[in-house]
């Protein structure tokens, strides 16, 4: 999805902006552009260079060499309104060419605003919703840029993170945000603005996070913030414990592979000092009266939602509270039964997913208590939620989520234990479950050794068109995530089925040579999953079994053995071979695993 960078300081802006855009490439985009203010005979001129295509195309554009200024804004566009083209790329200018604007988000009432501008004599040259913004600023400008921006923002419906520069105020970048992230990195007499922290990490780890409908006036040695009515707002600087290295590949061919390998350490960080054998679980949730809840909703999207499905078992087992898992995009429109006796848990790597934010707002408005499991520090969800628990997975750059998922599941299980202890529920298994969580980093590390065996399978099946995953209980839940990983990065059609459902319809799809991957880690139901796999084998399926049980079966083509663990936690282990499988299939197909087509790392639009 679109990315924003801005720079004001003593350095030449262009290289900083381009490096920032390169570090945002993982978000997915189709065009890129920069606008720079350069000194010109005691005045300032505003230059824009933009085009369709990769940042590399922009970087190779000779016109960039003429942009000498120290103030600039930049953007990577992921088309929503209007095809990817030079005209539709950002930055956009107003008709007088005084105000350059980059924008993330969607202006929902742009048709109405375009009409208003046209009636006032303006011409719009692109198909974008964004182009209304610089023109409205121009229309509202009477010498005071803050007034003009505030008035313009009040006219916009939808979401925005914007940067504005102009020769009329050459030492400032004006920024603002609503429902789309924006941070201001602080470094002595330099400021680096970004939609995502990694774009600024090579300069600083100190940030201001803009809140909803806030406006910032950013100069090289100061940053002031205002609410939409222009009352000044005092903000604290937040220090982020991520470093620039963690957002680089460090010798790995792709971010995805690097992040798969980072999983043992990431889980270690998630556990941190929250869990030890001889103490109660330690989470910063003082003040929550867990006794009042009679229902838990876990709400998220995509992989984060799969983390919720996997963890439902733990909440019901240890907390004895009925737990329902919902897709945020459904939850927000289905009028769910929520009141003050409901605990709503939201999961999000980015903390910026539009549907999850809307669902969270709905839950808050309905009087429930909200706890969010988030990776990106200071992101929107953390600021809306009553309580936030961070996964501490470090930056996840590959679009396909891997380490965030295992950390989300780990943290959700720790939360379930915490609630159980707060409720005083006796469960003889709690101590051994805590031990199992503490063993996770080593067991995930051991599981990484299956890489060669998995690669061998991927090398054989990567040309197939359809692939099926089956499992029961948590093995079914992890099958959904394995299937999603495969779809996302290899573009192979795949489905996950509860193994017992196979013969109620989907088995009709099984024919000679189709690959069926079964996950069987629960000692009580593995035999049953195995029988379902055999039913597929009888109908000609090529079979793979991921298991931690002692299963010997000559009919199965490939058996991948993984470490034993409590079956509630087994998805954190069994997902690893499935991630590696998807990775090698995509590599065999020579696809860009880090930036799969049509996908974006953080989905900030509905
Ligand atoms: C899949 C993937 C997506 C995200 C989903 C939610 O690999 O990454 O399905 O999980 O878009 O994103 P967050 O967790 O940022 O809310």
Structure summarized in a few sentences:
With 606 residues, the chain is of the alpha/beta class. The chain is 33% helix and 23% strand.
Features:
single chain, about 600 residues, alpha/beta, Glutamine Phosphoribosylpyrophosphate, subunit 1, domain 1, Rossmann fold, 3 domains, eight-stranded antiparallel sheet, seven-stranded antiparallel sheet, 25 strands, globular, binds fructose -6-phosphate
Account of the 3D structure:
Helix content is about 35%, strand content about 25%. It is of the alpha/beta class and about 600 residues long. The strands form four sheets. Strands 3-2-4-1-10-9-11-15 form an eight-stranded antiparallel beta sheet. The site of fructose -6-phosphate (F6R) has 14 residues, from helix 8. Fructose -6-phosphate binds near residues 302, 348, 349, 350 and 401.
Layout of helices and strands, plus pairs?
Layout: E1 3-8, H1 13-23, E2 31-40, E3 43-52, H2 55-59, E4 71-77, E5 92-93, E6 100-104, H3 110-119, H4 132-140, H5 145-155, E7 160-165, E8 173-178, E9 183-187, E10 190-194, E11 206-209, E12 214-219, E13 222-226, E14 232-233, E15 238-239, H6 255-261, H7 263-271, E16 295-300, H8 302-319, E17 323-327, H9 328-331, E18 342-348, H10 354-365, E19 369-374, H11 380-384, E20 387-390, H12 403-423, H13 430-447, H14 451-461, E21 466-471, H15 474-490, E22 493-498, E23 515-520, H16 526-538, E24 542-547, E25 558-561, H17 570-588
Parallel strand pairs: 16-17, 16-18, 18-19, 19-20, 21-22, 21-23, 23-24, 24-25
Antiparallel strand pairs: 1-4, 1-10, 2-3, 2-4, 5-6, 6-7, 7-8, 8-12, 9-10, 9-11, 11-15, 12-13, 13-14
Bound molecules: fructose -6-phosphate.
């Amino acid at each position: 999805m679109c990315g924003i960078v801005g720079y004001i300081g003593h350095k030449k802006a262009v290289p900083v902006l381009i490096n920032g855009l390169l570090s945002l490439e993982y978000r997915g985009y189709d065009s890129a552009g920069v606008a720079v203010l350069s000194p010109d005979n005691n005045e300032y001129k505003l230059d824009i260079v933009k085009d369709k295509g990769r940042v590399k195309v922009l970087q190779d554009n000779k016109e960039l060499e003429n942009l000498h200024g120290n103030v600039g804004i930049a953007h990577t566009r992921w088309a929503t309104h209007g095809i990817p083209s030079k005209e539709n790329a950002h930055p956009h200018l107003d008709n007088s060419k005084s105000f350059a604007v980059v924008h993330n988000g969607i202006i929902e009432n742009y048709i109405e605003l375009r009409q208003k501008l046209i009636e006032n004599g303006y011409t719009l040259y692109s198909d974008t919703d964004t182009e209304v913004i610089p023109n409205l600023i121009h229309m509202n400008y009477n010498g005071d840029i803050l007034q003009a921006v505030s008035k313009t923002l009040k006219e916009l419906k939808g979401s925005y993170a914007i940067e504005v520069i102009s020769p009329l105020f050459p030492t400032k970048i004006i920024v603002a945000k609503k429902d789309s992230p924006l941070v201001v990195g602080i470094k002595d007499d330099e400021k680096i603005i970004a939609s995502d922290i990694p774009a600024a990490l090579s300069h600083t780890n100190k940030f201001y996070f803009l809140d909803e409908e806030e406006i910032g006036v950013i100069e090289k040695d100061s940053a002031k913030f205002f609410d939409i009515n222009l009352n000044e707002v005092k903000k604290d600087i937040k220090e982020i414990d991520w470093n620039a290295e963690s957002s680089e590949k460090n010798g790995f061919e792709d971010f995805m592979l690097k992040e798969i390998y980072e999983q043992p350490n990431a889980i270690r960080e998630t556990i941190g000092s929250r869990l030890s054998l001889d103490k109660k679980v330690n989470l910063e949730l003082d003040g929550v009266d867990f006794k009042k809840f009679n229902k838990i909703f876990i709400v998220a999207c995509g992989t984060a939602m799969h983390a919720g499905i996997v963890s439902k078992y733990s909440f019901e087992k240890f907390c004895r509270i009925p737990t329902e898992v919902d897709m945020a995009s459904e939850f927000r429109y289905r009028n769910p039964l929520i009141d003050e006796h409901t605990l709503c848990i939201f999961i999000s790597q980015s903390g910026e997913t539009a549907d999850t934010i809307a669902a969270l707002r709905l839950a808050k408005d309905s009087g429930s208590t909200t706890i969010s499991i988030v990776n990106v520090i200071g992101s929107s969800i953390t600021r809306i939620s009553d309580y936030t628990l961070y996964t501490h997975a470090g930056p996840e750059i590959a679009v396909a989520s891997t380490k965030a998922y295992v950390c989300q599941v780990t943290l959700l299980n720790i939360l379930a234990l915490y609630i159980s202890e707060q409720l005083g529920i006796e469960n003889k298994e709690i101590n051994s479950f805590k031990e199992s969580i503490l063993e996770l980093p080593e067991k995930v590390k051991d599981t990484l050794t299956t890489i060669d065996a998995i690669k061998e399978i991927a090398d054989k099946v990567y040309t197939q068109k359809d692939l099926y995953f089956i499992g029961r209980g948590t093995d079914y839940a992890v099958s959904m995530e394995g299937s999603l990983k495969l779809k996302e990065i290899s573009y192979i059609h795949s489905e996950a089925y509860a193994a017992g459902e196979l013969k109620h319809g989907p088995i009709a799809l099984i024919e000679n040579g189709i690959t069926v991957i079964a996950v069987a880690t629960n000692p009580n139901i593995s035999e049953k999953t195995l029988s379902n796999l055999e039913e597929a084998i009888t109908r000609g399926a090529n079979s793979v079994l991921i298991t931690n049980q002692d299963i010997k079966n000559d009919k199965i083509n490939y058996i991948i053995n993984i470490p034993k663990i409590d079956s509630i936690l087994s998805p954190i282990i069994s997902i690893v071979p499935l991630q590696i499988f998807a990775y090698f299939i995509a590599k065999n197909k020579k696809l860009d695993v880090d930036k799969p087509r049509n996908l974006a790392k953080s989905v900030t639009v509905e």
